[in-house]
Design a protein that fits this description.
This protein has about 280 residues and is an alpha+beta fold. Helix content is about 20%, strand content about 45%. The chain folds into 2 domains: about 80 residues, no CATH class; about 170 residues, no CATH class.
Length: about 280
């Protein structure tokens, strides 16, 4: 079967397509044209784990190429009768920390191979994120009143500012939908965010398929702490603990089932302050 890049036929795809190359760069792939995109789709087809979900008279076939350290590439095959085509191919990152969200709402764009979740983080803000793994989930999970989510931002762009510098001081905590910011609104996807805050932790990763160096950054953005993945080459400035950071991110995530949550437990997270544990035990009257 040939795997051509599907024509961009609706406004939603046109908005996101122009910036997708930057998202692939953030996970270590250089996608510059239709040929390089199609080659990546073929790699995902060959290396990816398969999953499938039925949708009335249609079906979505997922392919997930797991590269290690949470790095993934997803492609989705849309089937409707005799009509079969690759609807989407996109970068993904399974974050370290798990969030509980609820209430929540799921919107599927089946012909585009996409799903978007609108929800509220317990103790945090309302968010919108791209759901990566809808095809591998037991659909009973969507009958729950709350979901466990691995959430992270893949960076279109990011810049660090030295701790104590004027730029760091000016990087006031921020977590805002890009479509509400004038200079980003016209091309922003619905799950794009502008963030700024303080670096709590960071480490380098390597894409084993390309050798590209990436950076995982844990950012305190005020009303939310968010994991950000960026290309080392595209990251401006020098990262240190306590430095300021600003970024434009595509917020994405994975819904976790019970087995995923159990497998992730590694004991007490020492990156949290002891006082934070006690705040979770306070009664709300």
């Amino acid at each position: 079967m040939s795997k051509p890049l599907r024509e961009q036929t609706n406004e939603r795809e046109a908005q996101s397509g122009a910036m997708m190359a930057e998202l692939f760069e953030a996970v270590g792939f250089e996608i510059t044209d239709e040929d390089s995109y199609n080659l990546l789709v073929e790699d995902v087809e060959f290396n990816g784990q398969r999953s499938r979900v039925e949708r009335q008279d249609a079906a979505l076939d997922g392919r997930c190429w797991k590269l290690g350290d949470g790095l993934e590439i997803w492609s989705v095959l849309y089937e409707h009768g005799s009509e079969v085509y690759y609807a989407d191919c996109r970068p993904a990152f399974r974050s370290r920390y798990v969030r509980v969200v609820g209430p929540w709402e799921l919107t599927e764009y089946q012909e585009d191979g996409e799903a978007v979740v609108r929800c509220t983080i317990h103790g945090g803000p309302e968010i919108i994120f791209e759901l990566q793994n809808v095809t591998e989930l037991n659909q009973s999970v969507f009958r729950e009143s709350h979901l466990h989510v691995a959430l992270a931002g893949i960076a279109y762009s990011a810049r660090a500012h030295p701790a104590g510098s004027k730029q760091a001081a000016d990087s006031a905590p921020r977590f805002e939908l890009a479509e509400r910011v004038a200079e980003f609104a016209e091309q922003a996807c619905e799950n794009d965010y502008i963030i700024s805050g303080r670096v709590l932790a960071w480490r380098e990763l390597q894409n084993p398929a390309t050798g590209a160096t990436l950076v995982w950054i844990y950012v305190d953005a005020g009303k939310i702490r968010v994991e950000v993945l960026a290309s080392r080459d595209a990251l401006g400035g020098q990262l240190t603990i306590g430095a300021g950071v600003t970024a434009n991110i595509w917020l994405q995530g994975h819904v976790l089932e019970e087995a995923d949550i159990t497998a992730r437990y590694e004991g007490v997270d020492r990156s949290y302050e002891t006082g934070e544990f006690w705040t979770r035990l306070r009664r709300e009257n």
